[in-house]
């Protein structure tokens, strides 16, 4: 490997120069009976690379190195110049000459751009950042949401209390995975209606292999042209979210050449994303930070004389594409689940297996595949996705099925385009004959008399979708048109036509309008238009009109948004006047242990009241905490002292309780989270090993961070003087007998820990001699103990 320090070599001075050709190497005038290893500072075209390369000087005079070493030095390795040992001889690289100054341990290489390996500039945010291993300690979380409502007020013909319902989501987590259980319950009209189980799932993720395993209830994987289903069984799938630093999309890259040492600046979407120096020669920029859709990058190359070369590079990235070499898949098997949310355990008796896969064959071609197998069903399909230059991307897929002795097929095509401010999205799907999938053959046949909405579970026979974004002459405005045509398996049709427009007005106001209609149903239409603007203090006002089949209403809404910080509150006032009046008022408050909301509504002549409470109970780190809802990761911070401010990403989240602990919510799973403490309120005699810790938590889990603060470190500030009473010089080192080392500071003071009733120490003087001293120590809790005038003889 290339090293950054020169190694001293004892060798006979020699200077050799050679011209590389495909012919046998020329005699250099320096020969030896054995090969020798040389570490040389490398110059290319008389410019330093600031790198040291490892080379082998062979007995025949040739100079060779490994392909990896040459590429890192900026020399392009060629397979034809590689010998049986795996090394590449510089003498055999075409177009390259070199001069070896062995006395100065330098190598001067001359070659053109064709013989140079481009310097790779990686713009990935985490390219140079150490990747920490995700953590998951042991604990439990129960999220809850309780909702209570009243019957009509002021009527007096029934009970005021209507009932209460609740949704609960509990999970146990550890390094072995997470067990999740969710359910809902309801009490109404004086009777308890029981529990309805939702999900029971165990999940485990392996960040190294980017795999997530699940057992229990889950949604199957799928592609844009398939229909995922709920299963009870087993699943293994690729999970790119376990590595937020890994970008699965094909990101744009570009190459260039600097004639002389220059400064390189890169701008994406008018924001500078990179600035650095490049040496002369070729370079390549990878992992450009972009988002899905179209954009452009501007590359500015500025030489030492201030001359600029500006290049604009358009690009297009799409979520339909997968980066070259990446494999995305999901494999599962289980019993299809029906009536989710209505019944606790309604599973089909048949077992089905489903597999979906995507593979980035190249950055311009992504392959897709999907299979569904089970009793009386075989379904398989394949597709491809590819870019359309810098303007868009497209995909095409074909599938076929056999079920009940009948066959069918499906075709799906998707197109997305963007140019300047124009955008287009289109999708066409057709199902032929008796095409079936797991969803269609396992769904319940809901009867019209069941009281539930009737939806066809079969594969739609036709789906057409079009969305167009149109630039407008006014700045900060947009116009969007949409059309959706659907023909379900029963032959029923819908044609939804929609239009929306928005325009920024004043400084921060917004004007908006939207409309929709079903061309197959004259009574299905709606218009919504209005204007909103802030009044200051997080208060916004919105007013407008809405037109529906039952009439036209005008509305006004005044609202103050609630923040995520504890102690924040919000409120909302809304009135909608028309044929059917609708008036509402609500207020919310976020405490440290839960969130509360109360409201009252008048619809027509009926008035009802509601109350809602959301929160969580957490058991972790030796404590029980009541807090707001925990949807992702969190940390329990154990400081060891009360009333200490704790911060997350440098933002205060609260103070430790009497036990010295605090729960820090809203950590980002699989990302670096910085948790720190403010030592200002710690006792003056407290020992603080660290005030900051960086942690990467697993999804849905908690981590316990122990900062190890000790109230009784047995420490003192000791003033050391010589026999004449003069403080010892600053910088001297010493050691307690059977204790830690220390350094003498200004005025001879040294901070010593781990003290006993009687202590002895030794200090090493600047002249190599030493002195020793003994002193007594008596702790004084809550105060900084200072011992003065300890003589070191």
UniProtKB/TrEMBL annotation:
Keywords: Signal. The keyword Transmembrane helix does not apply. Residues 1-16 form the signal peptide. Transmembrane segments: none annotated. InterPro entries: Fimb_usher, FimD_plug_dom, PapC-like_C, PapC-like_C_sf. It holds the Pfam family PapC_C. Residues 717-777 form the PapC-like C-terminal domain. This is Fimbrial biogenesis outer membrane usher protein. It comes from Nitratireductor rhodophyticola.
């Amino acid at each position: 490997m290339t090293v950054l320090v020169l190694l001293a070599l004892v060798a006979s001075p020699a200077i050799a120069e050679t011209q590389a050709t495909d012919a046998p190497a020329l005699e250099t005038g320096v020969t030896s009976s054995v090969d020798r290893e040389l570490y040389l500072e490398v110059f290319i075209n008389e410019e330093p690379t600031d790198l040291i390369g490892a080379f082998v000087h062979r007995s025949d005079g040739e100079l060779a190195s490994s392909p990896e070493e040459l590429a890192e030095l900026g020399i392009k390795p060629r397979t034809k110049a590689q010998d049986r040992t795996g090394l590449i001889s510089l003498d055999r690289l075409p177009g390259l000459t070199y001069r070896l100054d062995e006395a100065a341990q330098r190598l001067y290489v001359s070659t053109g751009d064709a013989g140079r390996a481009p310097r790779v500039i990686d713009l990935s945010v985490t390219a140079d950042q150490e990747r920490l291993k995700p953590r998951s300690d042991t604990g439990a979380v129960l999220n809850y949401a309780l909702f209570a409502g009243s019957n009509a007020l002021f009527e007096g013909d029934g009970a005021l209390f209507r009932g209460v319902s609740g949704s609960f989501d509990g999970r146990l987590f550890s390094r072995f995975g997470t067990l999740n259980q969710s359910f809902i319950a309801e009490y109404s009209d004086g009777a308890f209606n029981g529990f309805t189980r939702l999900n029971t799932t165990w999940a485990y993720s392996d960040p190294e292999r980017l795999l997530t395993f699940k057992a229990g209830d889950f949604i199957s994987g799928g592609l844009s042209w398939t229909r995922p289903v709920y299963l009870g069984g087993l699943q293994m799938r690729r999970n790119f979210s376990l590595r937020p630093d890994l970008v699965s999309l094909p990101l744009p890259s570009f190459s260039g050449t600097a004639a002389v040492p220059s400064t390189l600046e890169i701008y994406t979407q008018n924001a500078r994303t990179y600035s650095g120096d490049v040496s002369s020669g070729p370079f390549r920029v990878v992992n450009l930070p972009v988002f899905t859709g179209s954009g452009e990058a501007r590359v500015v190359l500025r030489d030492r004389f201030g001359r600029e070369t500006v290049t604009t590079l358009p690009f297009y990235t799409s979520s339909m594409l997968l980066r070259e070499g990446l494999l995305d898949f999901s494999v599962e098997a289980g019993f299809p689940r029906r009536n989710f949310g209505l019944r606790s355990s309604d599973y089909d008796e048949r077992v089905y297996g489903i597999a979906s896969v995507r593979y980035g064959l190249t950055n311009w071609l992504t392959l897709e595949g999907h299979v569904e197998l089970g009793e009386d069903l075989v379904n398989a399909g394949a597709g491809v996705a590819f870019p359309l230059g810098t303007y868009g991307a497209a995909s095409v897929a074909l599938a076929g099925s056999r079920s009940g002795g009948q066959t069918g097929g499906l075709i799906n095509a998707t197109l997305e385009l963007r140019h300047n401010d124009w955008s287009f999205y289109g999708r066409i799907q057709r199902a032929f004959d008796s095409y079936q999938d797991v969803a269609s053959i396992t769904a319940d046949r809901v009867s019209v008399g069941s009281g539930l909405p009737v939806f066809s579970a079969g594969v739609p026979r036709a789906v057409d979708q079009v969305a167009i974004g149109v630039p407008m002459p006014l700045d900060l405005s947009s116009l969007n048109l949409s059309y959706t045509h659907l023909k379900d398996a029963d032959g029923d049709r819908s044609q939804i036509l929609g239009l929306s427009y928005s325009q920024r007005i004043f400084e921060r106001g917004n004007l908006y309008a939207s409309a929709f209609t079903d061309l197959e149903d004259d009574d299905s239409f709606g218009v919504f238009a209005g204007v909103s603007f802030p009044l200051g203090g997080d208060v916004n006002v919105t007013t407008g009109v809405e037109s529906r089949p039952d009439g036209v209403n005008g509305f006004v809404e005044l609202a103050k948004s609630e923040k995520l910080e504890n102690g924040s509150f919000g409120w909302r006032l809304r009135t909608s006047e028309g044929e059917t009046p609708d008036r509402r008022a609500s207020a919310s408050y976020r405490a440290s242990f839960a969130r509360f909301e109360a409201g009252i509504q008048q619809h027509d002549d009926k008035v009802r009241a509601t109350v809602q409470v959301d929160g969580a109970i957490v058991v972790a780190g030796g404590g029980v905490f009541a807090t707001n809802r925990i949807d992702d990761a969190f940390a329990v911070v154990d400081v060891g002292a009360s009333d200490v401010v704790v911060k997350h990403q440098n933002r205060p989240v609260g103070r430790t309780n009497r036990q010295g602990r605090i729960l820090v919510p809203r950590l980002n799973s699989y990302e670096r989270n910085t948790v720190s403490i403010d030592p200002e309120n710690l006792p003056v005699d407290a020992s603080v090993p660290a005030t900051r810790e960086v942690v990467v938590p697993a999804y849905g889990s908690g981590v316990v961070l122990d900062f190890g603060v000790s109230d009784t470190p047995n420490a003192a500030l000791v003033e050391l003087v010589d026999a004449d009473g003069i403080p010892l010089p600053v910088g001297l080192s010493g050691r307690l007998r059977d204790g830690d080392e220390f350094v003498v500071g200004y005025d001879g003071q040294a901070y010593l820990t781990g003290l006993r009733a009687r202590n002895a120490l030794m200090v090493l003087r600047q002249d190599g001699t030493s002195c020793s001293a003994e002193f007594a120590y008596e702790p004084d809790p809550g105060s900084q103990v200072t011992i003065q005038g300890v003589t070191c003889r």
